[in-house]
Amino acid sequence: MYLYSLTLQQATGITCAINGNFSGGKAQEIAVARGKILDLLRPDENGKIQTIHSVEVFGAIRSLAQFRLTGGQKDYIVVGSDSGRIVILEYNKEKNVFDKVHQETFGKSGCRRIVPGQYLAVDPKGRAVMVGACEKQKLVYVLNRDTAARLTISSPLEAHKSHTICYSVCGVDCGFDNPVFAAVELDYSEADQDPTGQASSEAQKHLTFYELDLGLNHVSRKWSEPVDNGANMLVTVPGGADGPSGVLVCAENFVIYKNQGHPDVRAVIPRRADLPAERGVLVVSAAMHKQKTTFFFLLQTEYGDVFKATLDHDGDHVSELKIKYFDTIPVAASICVLKLGFLFAASEFGNHGLYQFQAIGDEPDVESSSSNLMETEDGFQPVFFQPRRLKNLVRIDQVESLMPLMDMKILNLFEEETPQIFSLCGRGPRSSLRILRPGLAISEMAVSQLPGQPSAVWTVKKNVSDEFDAYIVVSFTNATLVLSIGETVEEVNDSGFLDTTPSLAVSLIGDDSLMQVHPNGIRHIREDGRINEWRTPGKRSIVKVGYNRLQVVIALSGGELIYFEADMTGQLMEVEKHEMSGDVACLDIAPVPEGRQRSRFLAVGSYDNTVRILSLDPDDCLQILSVQSVSSAPESLLFLEVQASIGGDDGADHPASLFLNSGLQNGVLFRTVVDMVTGQLSDSRSRFLGLKPPKLFAISVRGRSAMLCLSSRPWLGYIHRGHFHLTPLSYETLEFAAPFSSDQCAEGVVSVAGDALRIFMFDRLGETFNETMVPLRYTPRKFVVHPKKKLLVIVESDQGAFTAEEREAARKESFQAGGAGENGNGSADQMENGGDDEDKEDPLCDEQYGYPKAESEKWVSCIRVVDPKTADTTCLLELQDNEAAYSVCTVNFHDKEYGTLLAVGTVKGMQFWPKKRLVAGFIHIYRFVEEGRKLELLHKTQVEGVPLALCQFQGRLLAGIGPVLRLYDLGKKRLLRKCENKLFPNTIISIQTYRDRIYVGDIQESFHYCKYRRDENQLYIFADDCVPRWLTASHHVDFDTMAGADKFGNIYFVRLPQDVSEEIEEDPTGGKIKWEQGKLNGAPNKVDEIVQFHVGDVVTCLQKASMIPGGSESIMYGTVMGSIGALHAFTSRDDVDFFSHLEMHMRQEYPPLCGRDHMAYRSAYFPVKDVIDGDLCEQFPTLPIDLQRKIADELDRTPAEILKKLEDARNKII
Amino acid sequence: MQASDRFNINSQLEHLQAKYVGTGHADLSRFEWAVNIQRDSYASYIGHYPMLAYFAIAENESIGRERYNFMQKMLLPCGLPPEREDD
Predict the structure, then answer these.
(1) How far apart are CA A923 and CA A913, in angstroms?
(2) Where do the DSSP E strands lie in A1130-1182?
(3) For an interface test with B, which of A61, A113, A798, A855 has the most B Cβ atoms less than 10 Å from its Cβ?
(4) For residue A742, how many C-alpha atoms fall within 13 Å in the half-sphere facing its CB?
(5) Which of A275, A662, A999, B21 is in Cβ range 3.0-4.6 Å of A634 for a Cys bridge?
């Protein structure tokens, strides 16, 4: 089995973000790393985050830093990754790519302890960069310019210190003196040797300054001083003329200003009043903002509170450090302060936010200062504060993030054409159920009812130079309605259009006149109001029309074509006639090319299943150039120019190709390349769009021509970052559409459907999925679907949080204590996101502030029933007494007394640290009542461990409780043990069944294949895996095959060898299996690993599903970083050959950007086996054209054929 | 094998041990071995962000706190070293 791996939704979480000026000019950009993806984002003028560029680097990006050479105009990006190399990138604005300026190897690849890459620090003047590892190694590279002003990099200078753990590094701003780097270090060598524990208790972190002597080209330890043992992060303080230099050391509960030869200035970080005393406050992200005369720091704690830190200084002497409460936003992995007054917060979990500064925290607020630091017997006196609503920031945009994707199911609960992805995302109060549908989201601008059923709609400008449309013209079966577009849209009668007849086409002709084609003729309305009418000869009527701004072709009933052209004076002149063999099904003329008088091609579709290209040149007017036969009669034709490849933002480097798109009666869209000179048709591709024949309309998207296809659902064909995308829209069925442009909506679409006129716009182009969100209360763990009622049952649980009642009580108390003044109405009766009453105006909405922290042994949990159609929670059971739900399944027991029941595995008083402990585990059995919308507890059975896996099996319930697999039957008061097997190595985390086989996943030891013998009432393990795999997700593929994913980011398939499988099935006694023991306590048979692939992200869910109607199934997976991918099995050996060769050439010709070897990355833990990386193959169109040609030659194909192959491969999956 | 070769191999080993932390030797104790493995593991968790996030979800902590905790655990990953047996 060979698989094609393709990422459908790129990771949405962010690991680190930096801001700078990467493209030169004035624009501020944000470079973000999303695990293995490097993105460049930019807030546009409307305050929306736009992705400018995105590239997969096939390696783990661990750190990013930006620097600017002195006097330079743009910032460079330094990337610390797992490649054992330092990579410096420059963003190339013209080509819209990252150029690799330097790549220097310094160590082994992989995320290792002593190989640098974890930390990056740059000299604030851009003269040097330090790259550090968790332990021992630090390397300094000197950056300079050569005579041609190109960036140069030196060989590395070592600043190693062995037996030393490094917590953080940063550059120290010392103007133009020798560059200095600061590091927080901890020496463990003595603690390792001292059995008494004295050395380890005395182990002291040090702040060390490393000086790079530019003259001697040497790095030395300049200064080292003990620092608070809770230190975890360093922040550069401006120096030289701008400030006092030195560093801010962020430690647990404190921020300390330190510099060489300067006394420590220490201030406490204010604590939330409700924080348990055992917990510290740690700064997790920081940003420094420098204005002309002042500077300040924003420090965010692990609870999400942002503090503004300022230094009072006089020259080099710092007199006071103040830390003032600023605002609270969700905890961020990185925060970036942009010069435009924006704050970008890359959330650790959940959606990222773009905030605008309303103020910079100058108003009085809770503040701690170094000058009023109080030391008592128990240490320093804490300062308390109460989080309040946003005062200094206001959120203006958010970027969706699915991180972490906890569970996912692909089902068609809504009975739409394609299945929906139901995913559990987020954590704690920011958890949500997100329903993803493949397709683009649209935003509806207006819907208005019309008097009757419209059949078509057009928009026209009055003049070719107008920016906006003047009229919307709607045609009915016997009338035409004209609406003028202004402040409002209203009906007008003075437009000159004939309103007593239906229309076939309405358009601008020439520069400033309008044309209306109706069944009996053509009405030409001149700018001065004169009307010319051309009437059809005899009793024949016009059936079809094709037009552009200068040319019109009409088809009369019977099959006669008449061709008109607008002459210099704007007069429509009949040019030529042509008799076709039969009725014409559809017509289209290509748009007039820039600087030409006419377009050369006319496409005519006939009912004899052919499409013909006719010439419109005066020499061979209406002569047939080429013919193509199609599988069904064409319904609609459209010429579209596509620039198929990147080479710059607009694909300017590449010649455009003209495509003829035909929508056929059988619902297929047929796309064929038209030779620009000869009109010959070649290279066709087809795609099934829906049950209705697609109608095609030319519209514009981001100023470029695009295509709207209306079948049983609408599709948009457009160019995004150089790729042609054909994506469904998440909208209802439309009949007819036209581009729409007005003051309020620069680039929209007007359409008719039923008796309504709809105007809409496209959101977030380039996205594969659009989502609807249902908020949840706690971190969702798993969910199941009620098989008949189509309801979802979700189990949610959180450690270290208070129950809803306790939170309500505490909230009431704090409102009463604080007075309702600032916090407004204390909406005490509001249960947070228990239903749809989530109030965004809530002054303390948990989604933003997080739940108050409780002691770590406290647990909260709930079981929720959601109706996905209405997004209503129909039942919410909160568990009591530190009980947390972990597993869930539906089960039908033998005696059909209750029908479908719900089993939920819970654990009470779970503790991970210092030792894993629990009070008891339980299996709850619930009955569905009220049509499955409510749950009723039947009984609760205590078990000795954590029931992490539950599954129905032959009318009974299988439960994995720690290392025990047990079969239960339903009793009156409790579950009844029927049979068990205690031979599993660690903890069972998944159980799947098929016929009499049971596939058990162990948390640490991969899969075990078991069998249940009813006659002996025993469970046997007959096969297991020889590789220790830390399973995180598993899925049953077929009788002998399981797919699994491990904690280290690998996906693998195991299969029981055919002969073993047959032997086991044929053996009637089972005796052999029973008595045969494997070696070393293993099972007698072993499964083979047949597929292996490193995804590079922890996979949390696996499922077999098909995303296209009638398509073959692929294995879909979701990851912690919020990406969704698919593994699709190849069906032909030729494809395998082709793609493996393409992958090989791509590896050679286009090595990944950040220096990690592609093959090594995909084989990071185990050698990759039988999986072809589609993400690498899909980078083919981004190669320079000559490289594309070179690879294509090696493969004996043309680049266009390769593009088509790639498109086909993707279309098989989604 | 000649004496000079053996000396050579030893010196090569010493070089490796100095260069790569965790290179074993004949007298490596169980404790030292375990400490090395643990430190390597923690460094790997810190380096792989998705894994760090995975732990953070399990423990309901922020990722930044989780990273700090792992760094702290690198000091004494296996508890105090055992008493040396005097030989």
Answers:
(1) 24
(2) 1171-1173
(3) A113
(4) 22
(5) A662
CATH of region A1114-1212: 1.10.150.910
Interchain CB distance below 8 Å, A1120 and B43: no
Q: Are A404 and A349 in contact (CB under 8 A)?
A: yes
Please judge whether B43 and A203 are an interchain contact, meaning their C-beta atoms are less than 8 angstroms apart. Answer: no
Reply yes or no: is the peptide bond before residue A914 cis, omega within 30 of 0: yes
> Is residue A672 scored above 50 in pLDDT?
yes
Residue A519's alpha-carbon distances to A84, A457, A501, A970, in angstroms, are: 72, 16, 8, 74
Contacts of B43 in chain A (CB under 8 A): 111-113, 133-135
Q: How many CB atoms lie within 10 A of CB A665?
A: 17
Give me the residues paired with residue A796 across strands. A780, A862
Question: Of residues A48 and A794, which shows the higher confidence score?
Answer: A794
Q: Is B66 on the interface with A (CB under 8 A)?
A: no
How far apart are the C-alpha atoms of A1189 and A708, rounded to whole Å? 31
> Helix and strand tally (H, E) in chain B?
4, 0
Residue appearing with tokens 């008494």: A196
Q: Parse chain B into domains and list their residue ranges.
A: 27-75
Angle, to 10 degrees, between the axis of helix B30-47 and the axis of helix B49-59? 100
Q: Is the Cβ–Cβ distance between A983 and A971 less than 8 Å?
A: no
* Chain A positions in Cβ-Cβ contact with residue B80 (cut-off 8 Å): 194-197, 200
Q: A334 vs chain B: nearest CA distance in angstroms? A: 10
Round to whole Å and give the CA distance between A1153 and A1151: 7
Dist. CA A1209–CA A897, nearest whole Å: 49
Show the tokens assigned to A719.
């160019």
Protein fold of A420-435+776-809+867-959? Methylamine Dehydrogenase; Chain H (2.130.10)
> What pLDDT is stored for residue A376 in this prediction?
82
What residues does each domain of chain A span? 67-76+104-395, 420-435+776-809+867-959, 983-1046+1055-1096, 1114-1212
* Fold observed for domain A67-76+104-395: Methylamine Dehydrogenase; Chain H (2.130.10)
CA-based nearest distance B1→chain A, Å:
32
Backbone angles phi, psi at A639, to 5 degrees: -90, 135
**At CA A720, angle to CA A717 and CA A723, rounded to 5?**
80
Q: What is the 3-state secondary structure (H, E, C) of A284-339?
A: EEEEEEECCCCEEEEEEECCCEEEEEEEEEECCEEEEEEEEEEEECCCEEEEEECC
Phi (first) and psi of residue A915, to 5 degrees: -135, 145
The reported pLDDT for the residue numbered A644 is 53
- Inter-residue contact A1147 to A1176 (CB < 8 Å): yes
* A451: enclosing H helix or E strand: none
Residue-wise pLDDT tens digits, A530-545:
899 999 988 889 999 9
| CA nearest to A606, candidates A630, A577, A623, A576 | A630
Weakest mean pLDDT among A537-541, A552-556, B62-66: A537-541
Split at pLDDT 50, 70, 90, the class of A840 is: very low
Distance CA(A775)–CA(A593), nearest Å, equals 51
User: Is the link from the previous residue into A404 a cis peptide, with omega within 30 of 0?
Assistant: yes
